[in-house]
Amino acid sequence: MDEIKIELIWSLISSYSLKILGSIAILLIGKWLVAKISNLISKLIISSRLDETLSSFLLNIIKTLLMAFVIIAAIANLGVETSMFVAALGAIGLAIGMAFKDTFSNIGAGFLIIFFRPFKLKDHIEVAGVQGAVKEINMFSTVLRTTDHKTIIIPNGRIISSNIINFSKEGTRRVEIVFCIDYKDDLKLAKEIILSLAAENKKILKEPKPFVGVGSLGENSVNLTARFWCASSDFSDVQFAMLESVKLAFDAKGISIPSPQLSIRYQDKRQDEQF
After folding, report:
1. pTM for the model
2. Are 122 and 168 in contact (CB under 8 A)?
């Protein structure tokens, strides 16, 4: 009797161990095939010159679907009825859908981003209070990379519900800088210096023409507003270069940049008492 039980247990172990090994093999081979198929599809997409943003999004969806098929095949190899499994998945999916409605709203938002194209990969945008270059758009989130190489992951649902500022959409940007000079300084000379430096800067566009005008009259200074147009990718370079070159030129020509002043009047209380 004991020998029969041992043989039965051993046969069950042998049978299921082979199935488990087979399922592991299906997962490993399937994963390898998914990688190969994904590479092939990626090459086809590149050769078809499809938009980079759309191709990246489609590739993520295809990979997810293929891996789901591999996992179902591995489970079916264990002897689990796939029809029952799919039905169970449907019921579980309904429960998960209620619990993770925000996640599925992010997927829907991802499709809206791809369809309406408010931005594409490598665009520099500001959304949800942060700025950065678009590094990746997937089903759930959009990944930005800041100028100091921080990675910011924003859910797609939050992006769709926020105002989106795309700095790369038009190809050019306007740099606006305010330069403050003393009331005693030569206003026309200051304007000429700024415009001549703008003309020398190769990254500043000739059209629209650079502009310098009196933006406001402050308490301690005349505030000159300078506006220059440049390529979107040159925005920071132009801003830094003009700030530095104008400061050096002002110093050389004796034009001062006044600092805020505070006048304090002191009155002796004893003198008030005498009167």
Report:
1. 0.59
2. yes
